[in-house]
Design brief:
homotetramer, alpha+beta, six-stranded antiparallel sheet, five-stranded antiparallel sheet, 3 helices
């Protein structure tokens, strides 16, 4: 991806975000905001963002990532990494995906701002450790996938466990994705605008290049990476973007 | 307040929220959404919402109040009440206030959607218990109050400790209000629209009439009320609205 | 209608217009902007704007009424009153109507901004003078009326010739109402927001109280009133609003 | 300009228009909507739309071009070409221009929807024929140009007579540009979004490729081209776009 391609992608996305009144500050439009999930996904730029081909890439504008550590009792420090507040606007072009992954710590919610969002997920949580986690309102079992969802070439297997499907629209109730659940989403390939989604979640532990020099709220948080992508190549892509 | 006055207030506010694309579902427009902070504040309806007089009343549309208990390790239960995700749209008419209060558990952030927001707060946290709480990025000391801020009659004393002031506008960075800090806010009295603010916060422990029959995510959360208003009358107003 | 009722109606409507980015200047929020179509329609305020009852009243915010006389060749003066540019935002509460009328000179177009618009019209033009007017793309014959459209009591007869119906939504192509066609419209009674419509039209010849001291672009335009309402009482209501 | 470059330009612009609620139908996103004003201006695509360099190119989405001939008295036909209704959304990238031109017949008005609009114009009308045209509210003399407005290379002379300047922002009153006045406009080179302007005007006589097979409302209108650009090369660019 060339610098020109990257800048056009980000500048158009930031303009769309501003038109939709998302609070974009200049610092939010940086070289970690456009995400290509692995080296093979840069091929998306051969035909460009509007080819409607299946690739894994997206833009994230993060307006808040607050650890919410201040004011905690001392005893709350141990599990504070499951808490905090993050607010992001995510922009995905037609046919493109945020690839399958889960977070051990982060619980998310989605609010569609423009377009429609196709969510694919595993209604059962990933087991982490021996003990079963707490359960209050488990994920619902969603619908079966519709026909004709084109996946990124070579990445098909990574979607195998995401058997549940839901389609979200502007004005719908917030949709909660509990921590430890595998999930992915895309913008429908025939959409006439990019999908724009606001994600309100607990803290995002993402040691991106852009964030690498920021102090950790608690010593135990240093270097924590809470994104576990199914496709190994996707993991590397989340943290650094290769711009020629 | 008559039923007609209440319904006009709520229906106009919900229309404004929808125009601003906030995801309003019918269930969110209920008899706990319009809040009058104490019996004496119903006098606001003698001259109506556009009198620009100082009273303490507001609308809150809550689109999300997710405890984020699912997926927690068992050990995380004890301090989970400091976590979770809440998303609200707050609508305040010119001259009106959200009165001074603090939350022991809830950390908040503000995003102005329409109009301008005058925030008044105490840069020092309220002491709760003997142990000092954790600190990472403390509240900044804000500006001094501007001239001419009219307070609700008889409630002036409740603002005494809120010596810091900040004015927020659409497009500004999110403003974080840490838990345990006294705060209040208003819509400027000379505004030409109500103030509309999105608040993203940790879980709201508010046993309102509307929420009274909902199950508690954890047994220890039952009946927790995390709003501590300075004026005793304001506390009662938060949970029930008297509609004739 | 009391001053308080009027001001609340207008201030809420102007706030909605601003939220939808319509260019409202303070001069546009005046005592001719809220329109009650005849003395009997003030009864709408007994139960208020959200009663969903059928009455004829609406708000019009006019951002442009440009005669477009400047730059015309002299010979163009004679028919210039059929030309010009007007841009209005019209706000109609659930169940309320803009009543049946036609314009000899004014051609209109509608763009729904919020909610849905039910248009009732006569696909045949009213005859004015002996000569048939020019025709290029006549009005289409619309659908039959749906069931259950409640009309204002005592005004039912005025809708008799408006046999065509069309329902317009945000994003639809502009709908053109040619001059000399009887038309009316309403906001559906079960809507959750007021209907908000942008009308782009030729010049509005409306000698309202607010406009009474403005100079006429051409001498022949002085006092021209181009609104012909079917119900005689509606005509008077258009030009002056009785506020106690 | 390649097909990919054109489609990305148009699709991003249409998405922005939709986010701003402009009523875009698929037919409006066509090969006449993106305009490059002359062969030399295709050089803009060497560094792309976000280079902030001065070139003359823009997007126009036209939602209405209504001749308003229906319902006219026969005598009105002669000057009807000065009338009618057109509604367009114009999208201009940072540093880019709509080049100097005038319309003999078309009167325009501007409403900034996003960003800021720098308008350059001649406060005196162009003489057409011997007779002075009608005058009611002549164009005001604007401000002097600010420092540092970069013009398209080789096109500087075409701006010589546009000595007046005004800067328009969202929420400003509509700005009227009378027919027969030379005018141009740009998006500031340092803007963070494209400029988005709604133009409400009388009928646009533009025999673009997209419109070439549409019937003329009146026989005398066939082939009328009402855009007179100062730079000869700009005239040709308005009507056809060269996409490889």
């Amino acid at each position: 991806m060339t610098r020109r391609e990257y800048d056009e992608w980000l500048n158009e996305a930031a303009s769309l975000a501003r038109a939709l009144r998302y609070p974009i500050t200049p610092d939010m439009v940086n070289d970690s905001a456009g995400i290509v999930f692995g080296e093979d996904q840069y091929a998306a730029f051969e035909n460009g963002l509007w080819s409607r081909e299946a690739y894994e890439l997206m833009v994230i504008f993060e307006s808040l990532n607050e650890p919410a550590v201040d004011g905690l009792p001392t005893g709350g420090a141990q599990h504070a990494e499951y808490s905090g507040l993050c607010d992001k606007l995510m922009i995905v072009h037609p046919g493109k995906f945020c690839p399958p992954h889960f977070h051990q710590r982060k619980t998310e919610s989605y609010e569609v701002v423009l377009g429609e969002m196709e969510v694919f997920y595993d209604p059962e949580p990933v087991a982490v450790g021996d003990e079963p986690p707490l359960a209050f309102r488990p994920m619902p079992v969603g619908d079966a996938w519709p026909e004709g969802v084109a996946l990124a070439a070579g990445r098909e297997d990574s979607y195998a466990r995401l058997t549940s499907y839901v389609r979200l629209r502007a004005g719908d109730p917030k949709f909660v994705m509990h921590r430890k659940h595998l999930h992915a989403f895309r913008c429908p390939a025939d959409a006439d605008t990019p999908l724009v989604v606001r994600e309100v979640s607990t803290y995002s532990h993402e040691p991106t290049e852009h964030a690498h020099d920021k102090p950790a709220p608690l010593p135990s948080w240093a270097g924590v990476h809470d994104n576990a992508f199914v496709a190994p190549a996707a993991n590397t892509g989340r943290l650094t973007t290769a711009i020629r």
